[in-house]
Amino acid sequence: MRKVIVTCAVTGAVHTPSMSPHLPKTPDEIAAAAIEAAAAGASVVHLHARDPEDGRPSQDPALFRRFLPRIAEACDIVINITTGGAPTMGIEERLQPALTFQPEIASLNMGTMNFGLYEMLGRFREFRYDWEEPYLRNSDANIFRNTFRDIEHILKSCGANGTRFEIECYDVAHLYTAAHFRDRGLLEGPLFIQTVFGIRGGIGVHYEDIAMMKRTADRLFGDDYVWSVLGGGRHQMPIATMSAAMGGNVRVGLEDSLWGAPGQLATSNVEQVRRIRTVLEALSLEVATPDEARAMLKLKD
Ligand code: KMH
Ligand code: ZN
Questions:
Q1: This protein's superkingdom (predicted)?
Q2: What percent of the chain has pLDDT over 70?
Q3: Which of 51, 86, 132, 211 gives 13 a disulfide partner, CB atoms 3.0 to 4.6 angstroms apart?
Q4: Overall domain count for the chain
Q5: For residue range 201-239, what is the model confidence (pLDDT) as tens digits?
Q6: Does the C-beta of 109 come closer than 6 Å to ligand 1?
C-alpha cells in the first residue's frame, strides 16, 4: 500500500486568536497540538511560535525552546520549523529558530509574492488583542519577501546543518525556481515540494491548477521529488483528498484552515489529522510513520 506523508501545521502566522479559540498560541498549546497530531498518525509537524500573552506570531528562539524539547520527549514526529515566519518579519529574524535548532526540515518559500490571507479573514470585526486588526489590515500592503538571494542564504545556512527543506511553491514559477536551485547544486533530491493552493497572490484551487502543478513538477523533477499539497481555508480537505488520490502527500492543520466542516470551526488540529487519515484509509492509502517519512525524504539521522 502506498504510504502518504501527513504534515500537520499547527498554528502558523496567518490566523489570529480572535478567529478561533482553538488556535494554539502558548507553548503548552503548541506542544499539546503537535503531540496529539503525532498520536493520530501525523508524520511531520510544521511549527511556528506565538507570543503566549497575545498570540502574535514570533520567531523568538526562546519561545521555540519552550515547546520543541517537550514534543521530542513525548513522541516521535519529524520536526519542521518555519523560515517563512510572517510577511511582516525580516529574513534574519525569520531564520533564527531554524538556525538555532537545526531541525530535520525547514520550510523554504520559493518566491516573493503578495500573500493575501484566506477568505474568512475579512469577516472579522472584533478583536481580542490590539495587534490583530492592524496586522490583518496591513496584510494587503505586505510583500512576502523571498528573493533569489534570500533563498540562497536559507539554503546555504540551514543546509550547512543538514536541514532539508519543505519547498513551498505557490505558483508554477516557483517550481521553475526550485529547478534553478537544483541545477545550481544548492538543492538535492529527493525534493520535498509542497504545492500551495488558494493563497490570494498564488495559484487557485481548481483541479486544473492542481493538475498543472503536478504535471510541471513531474516534468522538472521526474522521480526525484516527493509531492505534497496544501489547500488554504475551506479548500483544505477537498484539495488534500484530490491530491492524495492523484499520488500526493498532504498537509493539514489550523495554520492552513480553521474549518472542521462548512461553517464550523475545527476544535483542534488533531480533528483535521483524523479526518484526512479517514480519507486516506478510504482510498486504501496508509499514513507514513515518521521513520518512513525520514526514509522517503532522505532526512538526516
Ligand atoms: N501558511 C502557509 C501557506 C512558512 O511557514 O514558511 C505558508 C507557510 C510558510 O507555511
Ligand atoms: Zn508555516
A1: Bacteria
A2: 97
A3: 86
A4: 1
A5: 999 999 999 999 999 999 999 999 999 999 999 999 999
A6: yes
